[in-house]
Specification:
With 304 residues, this protein is an alpha/beta fold. The chain is 37% helix and 21% strand. It has a three-stranded mixed β-sheet with strand order 3-4-5, covered by helices on one side. The chain has a three-stranded mixed β-sheet with strand order 7-6-8, covered by helices on one side. Residues 216-296 form the Baseplate J-like C-terminal domain.
Length: 304
């Protein structure tokens, strides 16, 4: 994938204000007390320390309304930013770059059960929008090849580009279907797109190939402290680990033991005994890891 700025790791812009109820309430109380003469301020400070004081209740309501308004402004500001926009707000931003959300699965209401429409998710659309300026170029730059390949078909989940020799370009495609291996029909669509005279530079020889899928499974024992509930901890660990494996189902993404341990070591877990894999799975940009199974076993401890 292209070396783009990771928008999720950027600091929040200053236009987004903090939503801190207690801090705002303290400010409102201080401003209220400052309205009185010096000799009355100690009295009002004591009164406003009481939750039962009607003026305290009134100030709390004022702060709550202020927080709601501040949150509304924050959300309106986020809707204009590529890093934060979602849904139709993101569609509008993408349209400014002539990028449209792809349809992953067409709806079909003439069958039973009906087949719903599945659209490209926000993360994928946001990435293609970041790459949009690369699409203004022919596919000479690496990022331009990535943009055009991602836009060739909705089934293209990820792309890597390498140039093993001058004027030779190898484009690797990860599919959204199955374990990620791209079939010949999808590869042909991408080939047609990249070999268009308006995209491919004269002299470039473009090879489009499928990703090589390396399957693996995760087996682990979760040693838990003694407690009344074990299943919620197991469910939370499974959810977090599943999210980790999905995030890593990209080209050239390593599967690290440290990442698996981090996903499984939740509150209530004494220790994690990882059975499989036994070592980091290190992959080149032409390969993608696919988790075929997750097996978590609960082992209870005598410790509290």
């Amino acid at each position: 994938m292209s070396e783009l700025v990771d928008l999720s790791k950027l600091d929040a812009p200053k236009v987004l204000e903090d939503l801190d109820f207690e801090s705002l309430l303290a400010d409102r109380k201080a401003e209220f007390i400052a309205l009185f003469p010096q000799d009355e301020r100690e009295f009002w400070q004591a009164r406003l320390s009481l939750e039962s004081e009607p003026i305290t209740k009134l100030l709390q309501e004022v702060v709550y309304l202020q927080l709601m308004e501040r949150n509304r402004i924050n959300n309106a500001a986020k809707a204009t930013m590529l890093a934060y926009a979602s849904g139709s707000d993101l569609d509008v931003i993408a349209a400014n770059y002539n990028v449209k959300r792809q349809v992953i699965q067409e709806a079909n209401n003439n069958v039973t059960p009906q087949i719903p429409e599945i659209l490209e998710d926000d993360t994928s659309l946001r990435l293609r929008t970041q790459l949009a300026f690369e699409g203004l170029s022919v596919a000479g730059p690496r990022s331009a090849y990535i943009f055009h390949a991602l836009s060739a078909h909705p089934d293209v989940a990820d792309v890597s580009v390498a140039s093993p020799q001058p004027a030779n370009v190898t484009v690797t495609i990860l599919s959204r279907n199955g374990q990620g291996e791209a079939d010949e029909s999808l590869l042909n669509v991408v080939r047609t797109k990249l070999n268009d005279d308006d995209i491919r530079p004269i002299g470039d020889r473009v090879i489009v190939q499928s990703a090589v899928i390396q399957s693996y499974e995760i087996r682990a024992k979760l040693h838990l402290y003694r407690g009344p509930e074990y299943e919620p901890i197991k469910a939370a660990a499974l959810k977090k680990l599943t999210a980790y494996t999905k995030e890593k189902h990209r080209l050239g993404r390593d599967i690290s033991l440290s990442g698996i341990y981090a996903a499984l070591h939740l509150e209530g877990v004494q220790r994690v005994e990882l059975i499989s894999p036994t070592a980091d799975i290190v992959l080149p940009s032409s390969k993608s890891a696919y988790c075929t199974a997750i097996n978590l076993e609960i082992v209870t401890s005598d410790d509290y």
